[in-house]
Amino acid sequence: MSDDRVRGFPAFGAGGRLARSWWGRAWVRAMEDTALDLRQLKKGRKYAAAGLVGPITVSPGRIAATVEDADGGPYRTRLRLAELSAADWTRFLDRVASRSGHLAALLDRDLPADLVEAAGVDLLPGIGDLDPECDCPGWELPCRHAAALSFQASWLLDADPFLVLLMRGKGEREIRAELESRIASAPSAELPAADRVPGELPDLAEFRPSGAPSIPAAPGVPAEAFALLAVNAAGRARELLDGRPCPGRRVDAVRMAAEFPSAAERLGEGAGFARAVAAWRYGGPDGVEVLESRWTPPKAVVAAARAALGEEAVFERNHCTVGEVQLRLDRAGRWHPYRLEGDEWWPSGPPERDPRLLAG
Fold first, then answer.
1. What is the pLDDT of residues 332-349, one digit of tens each?
2. Which residue, 6, 21, 164, 316, shows the most beta carbons closer than 10 Å to its own?
3. pTM of the model
């Protein structure tokens, strides 16, 4: 079993919010539509906002955490969701791989609603699909502890829709590997149709031999490289249409190595490149920037972090070392965790705005 099939997340601090993504809201709606007692939902929302839910573990078919309660506890709480069948996974992955726009969106941690609808797979839970469990003495389903966990789970899903896929049975590495395999085995690409609507991304399913000359393979270049380049170009086009700047050549190589592990050895080598790839996987371009550059944050930001982390924290510009953990602040106000491996600090997890969540 690959490591990313069991993912752990530090506890959220106090401070509630509503799910922002459509799939996060669908998750909450599935719980609310099943609830027998709306009072438990209200209490669960308060518990989530108060930070009473402990660290969350996500694995195939299961989200689990302990939840504190003034009336007792902590209580062990779980939410179960049935894994997809092999046929459903084949149908979903085939659909993603056949549409360059959908593939680029998913790799950018977006989950287009039309992808889920077109794939014909029940990816998100519906009424009765979420099965709450808790060892508290309450009989309500969901109880306030399961509701609190479900609300916080929607916050995690907002940031990473791959967690929905993990709940349904496959980790991100396995999904990426299966998508790469499908793309690499596709027939040689042809030039896209000339009458395409301006701004519309090409559909990889259209790149099939139909009598017209295909683009010849370059000597010494593996066939799968062309497929990866096609997907990469679609993703970059999508970013340009969204108004996002293109990264430099080296950072783009780092991004491709992070998104397409099978091509990593051809894109770069050495510990420095490997660290940059790890930084991108956890924090995107901001993660690479805090790895390779330093800057001086406002004094008020440093003072707030010092007050939160205590006297043992050692600050050096945007770096803060607390025991065996180093936190690096990006310009968006998020702290990126690092662990010492040998003589080098290596990225060790996704960023958080509250440094206390990472310093434990």
1. 888 899 988 888 889 888
2. 164
3. 0.57
